[in-house]
Design a protein that fits this description.
Layout (H helix, E strand, L loop, with lengths): L14 H13 L6 H14 L3 E5 L2 H11 L7 E4 L6 H8 L3 E4 L11 H10 L3 E7 L8 H11 L2 E5 L7 E2 L2 E2 L6 E5 L12 E5 L2 H11 L20 H32 L14 E2 L5 E4 L4 H10 L16 H5 L8 H9 E4 L7 H13 L6
Parallel strand pairs: 2-3, 2-4, 4-5, 5-8
Antiparallel strand pairs: 1-9, 6-7, 6-10, 8-9, 11-12
Helix pairs in contact: 1-8, 2-8, 3-4, 3-7, 5-6, 8-12
The protein binds pyridoxal-5'-phosphate (PLP).
Pyridoxal-5'-phosphate binds next to helix 3 and helix 4.
Amino acid sequence: MTRCHIPIAKPNISERTKARVMEVLGSGFIASGDEVRKFEQAFAGYTGATEGIATSSGTTALHVALLAAGIGPGDEVITTPFTFIATSNAVLYCGARAVFADVNPATYNLDPEAIRKAAREHPKAKAVLVVHLFGLPCDMDAVIDVAAEYGLTVIEDCAQAHGALYKGRMVGSIGLLSAFSFYPTKNMTCGEGGMVVTSDNELAERCRLLVNHGSAIRYQHEILGYNYRLTNIAAVIGSTQLEDLDDFIAARSANASRLTDGLSGLSGVITPWVPDGCRHAFNQYTIKVPQGREDLLKYLEREGIGYGLFYPQPSYKQSLYKELGYGDSYCPVAEDLSAQVVSLPVHPLLDEWEIDRIIEVIGDWTPNKG
Ligand SMILES: Cc1ncc(COP(=O)(O)O)c(C=O)c1O
């Protein structure tokens, strides 16, 4: 029997997007311009923030957000080690130090009590950088309480969470500044790109300077900035993807429900938990496999089911971080999760047959038979 391959991610690019890209190419205005401004306004409006500043990636959006928040050498930023490396790398770019706090074993997101402990032990901490991992919002009420108690600025890494809701509020509109990514595996894409959103006008102006060599007026440079600009080409991809974002999220949600219905009775895997009051945007559908994960991975490979290991180790265990003296960091929950998680396909282009095939394959894996 030939085995089909079901990929873990697949960007969904419409004919409308392709047509708009061709128009921009034909216009001759392909670098940063009007299309970028339109995308910034539309995306900020979607999140409920008043200002959007487009960037060249989610990583550069994080860097700009942290710099605008005043993070610099000698500062510390509390964050999670259970995320993509860009989260804590952005802290390092600012010359600051990341303080790793542990995550909640059910949500995979920063545990507010762990933030509190880190804030108590690190009086130099100026900010907390939360990540809404896999598309599930953090426990933001508790995060904001701890942040207020210790005078921390709250910054959201929403790279995986476009369209996620926390108690009726879009993620990205809760912290002082937030960063999104439009990498092709995300809930919406523009190839490579990112966005900072905020409702603070002054911070937004600072972000605009930072992405454009510190310049608001041509050849006048007020501060040290960067070329982190987005192009008009990428912006029209983003604008048209944004028009489809709610449909994409509805499809991700429906796929996740079907997966959970099919997998939740199995003894060898634990399906994702969605706390009351949250809309999970399901950028990833991540199960826990307490025993025999390597065996399951081999089996998925043999059966042509794509998967991802997000993330195979906590950030502080990366060799760069060890060299930088993070060897003493220890977050037991993040360590356990990195040995247990498996992300399965949940993207909007899956059909029901493919989802049922994923369920069937995992159901046939020996530990689930016992
Ligand atoms: C949580 C998180 N933060 C930041 C980023 C960085 O985004 P980009 O790849 O667009 O630079 C990513 C992207 O993979 C991410 O998943």
